[in-house]
């Protein structure tokens, strides 16, 4: 059974209440889609026929999130036979595109393609195409009323190939570029990174993937197949791979957040699932499958986002996670034609504020047993960008405070029963561009 059925069933049974845990599967596969004239990838057979077959197998096995790399000139054939409901639009064949695409049973917001700052043609033609990585906030689960949503920031990548010294330099720069992006844009969030790193722990020059592990990401292959020990001795995989302990360059990394816990349950090379009818391989890379269990935070959760993905990312999740029983004492908003700034001051004095200094300030001081339990946000367009125009907060005593200018495009949020709104996450500059609420138990 495909996992999407389980997700749908859970929502139907629970109505507006969000599921608080579940499972999902991922697959990372370099689909060897360079034009045959440039590179046959050591794969027998016709590339169009093989691409149709890869798409058929994507549909058949129904992995929840698939990352394809080298999805260049046979992309249309993969999408022709695949049936995942959410798929990225191709960025083009060689030499226009990055070859990175996502096929998923789960929706996302805020998709971006980012090009590597560094490439090397020392061996193979890495500068021929604008390779890089992609970013999306994947919606793992959400209540039908949008009050609570579980997200993970999901990255696909294809790093520089080769082992000449300029390749090694470019590849470490690539992986470090993703790490820096995560540090800025995924602060406070659960993260999944999976793709073709072109890196091996067992190659001493590949230092960057080891620093991912040192900086809080986990590799399910290391944890589940190598007993938690990062290998220093090379064991190359055959293709199809006969075991799960050999090392390939296609890798999976992940971390949890205070808002969502991820746990890797199983890792395998899914090579035997992706063979031609005569037993030949469909790609020169072994596809990687990891299955995860997710659960929403026990002391912090979040709402759906409203507004647009402009301005800089901010999140109160990490700060709030370090405070025992956070409770807003004062709400302060600034607004005018749009919403300039949102803020709460917690009862321990911690101030959480985001946005600019324009507009007029309004505030509401809450009683000791009064909680912020409901909010409404309205969005609109300014200079072609979707931004947050309006906020209205309501407390458990029925008092309200609002700021900005209401539009016709609004969303209402109520804290889950027994919970309250305690802070924010989203994107802002001079004004508030995108906003979601952080909830904590009362
Ligand atoms: C939840 O959000 C989506 C848009 O993202 C909207 O279509 C839907 O109507 C919302 N649900 C409710 C109950 O407001
Ligand atoms: C896994 O397969 C590789 C490639 O055939 C081989 O070198 C390695 O010894 C195998 N490992 C185990 C534990 O069988
Ligand atoms: C992941 O889950 C799928 C569907 O239940 C299953 O077929 C597959 O074997 C699992 N993968 C691993 C690595 O256990």
Automatic annotation (TrEMBL):
GO terms for biological process: phosphatidylinositol dephosphorylation. Residues 1-18 form the signal peptide. GO terms for molecular function: endonuclease activity; phosphatase activity; sphingomyelin phosphodiesterase activity. It comes from the Eukaryota. Residues 311-441 form the Jacalin-type lectin domain. InterPro entries: Endo/exonu/phosph_ase_sf, IPPc, Jacalin-like_lectin_dom, Jacalin-like_lectin_dom_sf, Sph/SMPD2-like. One of its GO terms (cellular component) is cytoplasm. Keywords: Endonuclease, Hydrolase, Nuclease, Signal. It holds the Pfam family Jacalin. The keyword Signal applies. Transmembrane segments: none annotated. PANTHER family: SPHINGOMYELINASE DDB_G0288017 (PTHR16320:SF1), SPHINGOMYELINASE FAMILY MEMBER (PTHR16320). This is Endonuclease/exonuclease/phosphatase. It comes from Podospora didyma.
């Amino acid at each position: 059974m495909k996992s999407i059925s389980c997700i749908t069933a859970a929502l139907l049974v629970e109505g507006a209440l969000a599921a608080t845990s579940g499972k999902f599967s991922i697959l990372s596969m370099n689909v060897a889609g360079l034009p045959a004239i440039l590179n046959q990838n050591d794969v027998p057979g016709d590339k169009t026929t093989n691409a149709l077959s890869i798409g058929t197998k994507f549909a058949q096995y129904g992995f929840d999130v698939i990352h394809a790399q080298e999805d260049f000139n046979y992309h249309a054939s993969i999408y022709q036979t695949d049936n995942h409901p959410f798929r990225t639009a191709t960025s083009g064949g060689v030499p226009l595109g990055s070859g990175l695409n996502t096929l998923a049973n789960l929706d996302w917001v805020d998709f971006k393609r980012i090009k590597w700052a560094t490439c090397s043609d020392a061996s193979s033609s890495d500068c021929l195409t604008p390779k890089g990585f992609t970013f999306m906030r994947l919606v793992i689960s959400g209540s039908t009323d949008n009050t609570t949503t579980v997200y993970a920031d999901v990255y696909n990548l294809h790093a520089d190939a080769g082992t000449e010294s300029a390749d090694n330099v470019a590849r470490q720069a690539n992986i470090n570029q993703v790490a820096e992006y995560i540090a800025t844009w995924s602060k406070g969030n659960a993260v999944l990174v999976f793709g073709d790193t072109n890196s091996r722990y067992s190659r001493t020059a590949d230092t960057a993937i080891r620093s991912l592990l040192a900086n809080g990401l986990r590799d399910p292959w290391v944890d589940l197949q190598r007993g938690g020990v990062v290998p220093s001795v090379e064991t190359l995989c055959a293709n199809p791979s006969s075991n799960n302990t050999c090392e390939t360059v296609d890798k999976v990394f992940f971390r949890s957040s205070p808002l969502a816990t991820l746990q890797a349950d199983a890792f395998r090379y899914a090579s035997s699932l992706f063979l031609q009818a005569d037993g030949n391989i469909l790609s020169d890379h072994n596809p990687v499958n990891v299955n995860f269990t997710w659960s929403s935070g026990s002391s912090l959760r979040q709402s759906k986002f409203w507004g647009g993905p402009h301005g800089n990312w901010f999140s109160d999740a990490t700060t709030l996670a370090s405070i025992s029983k956070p409770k807003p004492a004062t709400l302060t908003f600034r607004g005018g034609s749009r919403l300039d700034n949102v803020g709460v001051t917690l009862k321990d004095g911690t101030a959480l504020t985001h946005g600019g200094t324009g507009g007029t300030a309004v505030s509401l001081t809450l009683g000791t047993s009064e909680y912020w339990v409901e909010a409404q946000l309205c969005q609109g367009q300014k200079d072609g960008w979707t931004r947050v125009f309006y906020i209205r907060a309501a407390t458990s005593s029925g008092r309200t405070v609002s700021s900005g200018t209401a539009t016709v495009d609004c969303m209402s949020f109520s804290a889950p029963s027994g919970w309250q709104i305690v802070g924010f996450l989203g994107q802002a500059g001079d004004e508030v561009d995108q906003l979601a609420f952080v909830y904590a138990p009362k």
